[in-house]
């Protein structure tokens, strides 16, 4: 039964709403309505780029349900608590612009620029060392569950591991030689 529930969960969410094993940045490009699970899926991404006409909501209470794919937990961590609770209790619909103002949307763009902007963001991220990007994501996600003191303490072991990589050497070398780095990811 437990194995079936895990498979069913992954089939519904693609494993994105809570998968600590995703080490690469996830960008959600939202076009249209992101209601219920769609909004929860977007909240599970690292970055959200929304088309101007996008609308977000967690309307589950209207049908006697609760958001079970992380919407409650992520929303209260990503925007002020009382605002999140108002959204959750009243199943408020929010425009892409409101999402930007609240801070859960990174950028709002015209529809014809949505995928272009998402790709541009991905390309910018790919300009950095894959190991550094992975370490940053791990530190940010792990740090959410710790005190600030503990989070700082976990930085140094990760940094020590990273400092032994080829990418750690390549970055400053490329900078001093005034060229783009050639990342190895090792």
Automatic annotation (TrEMBL):
InterPro entries given for it? Answer: ClpP/crotonase-like_dom_sf, Enoyl-CoA_hyd/isom_CS, Enoyl-CoA_hydra/iso, Enoyl-CoA_hydra_C
Q: Would I find rRNA-binding among this entry's keywords?
A: no
The protein's matches in Pfam families, at most eight in alphabetical order, are given as: ECH_1
Q: What is the lineage of its organism?
A: unclassified sequences, metagenomes, ecological metagenomes
Among its keywords, does the record have Transferase? no
What molecular functions are annotated in GO for this chain? lyase activity
Q: Member of which family?
A: Belongs to the enoyl-CoA hydratase/isomerase family.
Q: Which Gene3D superfamilies match?
A: 2-enoyl-CoA Hydratase, Chain A, domain 1, Lyase 2-enoyl-coa Hydratase, Chain A, domain 2
Q: What is this protein called?
A: Enoyl-CoA hydratase
Q: Quick one: a GO biological-process term for this protein?
A: fatty acid beta-oxidation
Q: Which UniProt keywords apply?
A: Lyase
């Amino acid at each position: 039964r437990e194995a079936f529930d895990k498979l069913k969960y992954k089939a519904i969410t693609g494993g994105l709403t809570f998968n600590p094993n995703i080490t690469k940045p996830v960008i959600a490009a939202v076009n249209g309505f992101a209601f219920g699970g769609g909004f929860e899926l977007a909240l599970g991404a690292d970055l959200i780029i929304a088309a101007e006409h996008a609308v977000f909501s967690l309307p589950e209470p209207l049908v006697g349900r609760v958001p079970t794919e992380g919407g409650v937990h992520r929303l209260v961590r990503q925007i002020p608590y009382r605002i999140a609770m108002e959204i959750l209790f009243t199943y408020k619909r929010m425009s892409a612009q409101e999402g930007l103002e609240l801070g859960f949307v990174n950028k709002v763009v015209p529809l014809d620029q949505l995928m272009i902007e998402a790709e541009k963001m991905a390309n910018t991220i790919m300009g950095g060392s894959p190991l550094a990007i992975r370490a940053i994501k791990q530190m940010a996600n792990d740090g959410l569950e710790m005190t600030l003191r503990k989070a700082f303490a976990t930085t140094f072991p990760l940094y020590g591991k990273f400092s032994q990589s080829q990418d750690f050497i390549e970055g400053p070398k490329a900078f001093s030689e005034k060229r783009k780095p050639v990342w190895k990811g090792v």
